Amino acid sequence: MPTFATIQQEADERNLIRKIQKAVAFLAPTSVELPASLFVVGGALVDLKALGYLPIGMVTPDGFEFGRDISKSDVSALGYAGPVRSDIDTVARSVKMTALETGRKHMLELTYGTDLSAVTQSATTGEIVFDEPDLPVGQEYRLLILGNDGPAADNWILGRGYGSVKLASTDSQKWGTGDPVQQAYTFDVFTDAEIGVPVKHYIGGTGALKHKTALGFTAGT
Predict the structure, then answer these.
(1) What is the reported pLDDT for 215?
(2) Is the separation of the CB atoms in 170 and 136 below 8 Å?
(3) Is residue 17 packed enough to be buried (19+ CB in 10 Å), middle (13-18) or exposed (0-12)?
(4) Which pLDDT score is estimated for 88?
(5) Domain that holds residue 132
(6) Which CATH number covers residue 127?
(7) In a domain, 175, yes or no
(8) By the number of CB atoms within 10 A of the CB, which of 62, 122, 163, 195 ranks highest?
(9) In the chain, % of residues over pLDDT 70
(10) With bands split at pLDDT 50, 70 and 90, how would you rate the model's confidence at 178?
């Protein structure tokens, strides 16, 4: 008969405990497709810049927060203290981050909800001047976030691809000596009509290969 120790030993797998050490995020217009895979033949990562993705850049140590707010309705029955049935009605998904590189053109377009494609930079002074519209135009984007954990021989690449996100809110921006200039963003997530799902999840790398038995997925041909 198995003991508790042997059951625990067979049930637990510490190699599946992940901690994202580094992460990068990208935005793209909805005309750009989400990659079907993060890897190309040979195991190298896909060239996201060549696909049309634009970097969000460095973010604060808080990293990226993926919200998933579930709303449900319960059915009660006579003689029962608890619900006898529960159904999920809505799942409100969101992504939050605080960007440190606030001067990129596409990030300014995102922040202020305006098109800066016609704005030029002075060749003599380096000055850029643009107007913030009274009412921002909310554009939808693709959003792709990649996380990295572990050494080369046991490396994990985790990804989340969003077919359609839209800026929901920005926090106040502070200019002072205490903190760097930074901008907080909250995105609402929608189900993209073309992709058909709100989120595409990616798991890969040498670590995923090394611990494929613990992951439990059927091997592809």
Answers:
(1) 94
(2) no
(3) exposed
(4) 97
(5) 19-72+84-215
(6) 2.30.110
(7) yes
(8) 163
(9) 100
(10) confident
- Give the number of domains in the chain: 1
Gyration radius of the chain's alpha carbons: 22
Quick one: three-class SS letters along 59-128?
ECCCCCEEEEEEEEEEECCCCCCCCCEEEEEEEEEEEEEEECCCCCHHHHHHHHCCCCCCCCECCCCCCE
pLDDT of residue 205: 96
68 is a domain residue: yes
The pLDDT of residue 27: 98
pLDDT at residue 221 tops 80: no
Provide the 10 A C-beta neighbour count for residue 205. 21
78 within a domain of the structure (yes/no):
no
Provide the mean pLDDT of the chain: 95
Q: Encoding tokens for residue 8?
A: 């625990």
Q: Are strands 140-149 and 156-170 parallel, antiparallel or unpaired?
A: antiparallel
Q: How many residues does the chain have?
A: 221
Average pLDDT (79-105) is: 96
CB atoms under 10 Å from CB of 142, counted, come to 24
14 within a domain of the structure (yes/no): no
Q: Name the token pair of 74.
A: 């319960």
Token representation of residue 45: 């990562």
